[in-house]
C-alpha cells in the first residue's frame, strides 16, 4: 500500500490526503504510465534525453488549471527543442483533446492519469478523496533526475510559474 500523507494539502481550506511519496530535488524521477490518447500509453522513458517540465493539474476544466496550462503553453515557445512540457491530469483523453482544441493549446502535451493513477501515486500527488492529481510542478533533467518540485499546499492556488521556468532554463 502506498504511503498516505494526511493533511498534506487542502481544498478550499479543507484537509485532503495525498497518496505517495513527497519527492524533492535530487531524487530520481519515478517511472509512470499515462495515456496519450485512448489507445496509446506513454511513460517517462518516452521522453528520454529531454528536459521535462511536468505540470500537474486536477482538471483542465477548472479556472486555475486552465490558466496554468495556457501559461506553460506560452512559456514552451521560448524553452527550446530540448524541453518537453507535459500536463498531466486525471481528465479523460477525449476531454483533454477537446479542451486543447478549444483553448488553442498546441505546445503542451496533455497526458491522462485516469486508468491506473500511476503518475499520481509515484509522484505523491494522488488525492485520496477525489482520485484526482494535486496541483504540482516537477522539472526533470535529461538524465531523469528531479531538479525542481513544487507541491501546492492549497489545491486552488497557482504554482510559482517563474520559478519553474527558471528551473528549466538553469539546465541549459
From TrEMBL:
Matching PROSITE patterns: THIOREDOXIN_2 (PS51352), TPX (PS01265)
Pfam families: Redoxin
Molecular function terms from GO: thioredoxin peroxidase activity
Enzyme class: oxidoreductase
Reaction catalysed by this enzyme: a hydroperoxide + [thioredoxin]-dithiol = an alcohol + [thioredoxin]-disulfide + H2O
EC numbers: 1.11.1.24
Thioredoxin domain sequence ranges: 23-172
Protein keywords: Antioxidant, Disulfide bond, Oxidoreductase, Peroxidase, Redox-active center
InterPro entries, alphabetized: Redoxin (IPR013740), Thioredoxin-like_sf (IPR036249), Thioredoxin_domain (IPR013766), TPX (IPR002065), Tpx_CS (IPR018219), Tpx_Peroxidase_subfamily (IPR050455)
Active site (record annotation): 65
Family: Belongs to the peroxiredoxin family. Tpx subfamily.
Subunit structure: Homodimer.
Matching HAMAP family: Tpx
Its biological purpose: Thiol-specific peroxidase that catalyzes the reduction of hydrogen peroxide and organic hydroperoxides to water and alcohols, respectively. Plays a role in cell protection against oxidative stress by detoxifying peroxides.
Full protein name: Thiol peroxidase
Protein species of origin: Paenibacillus solani
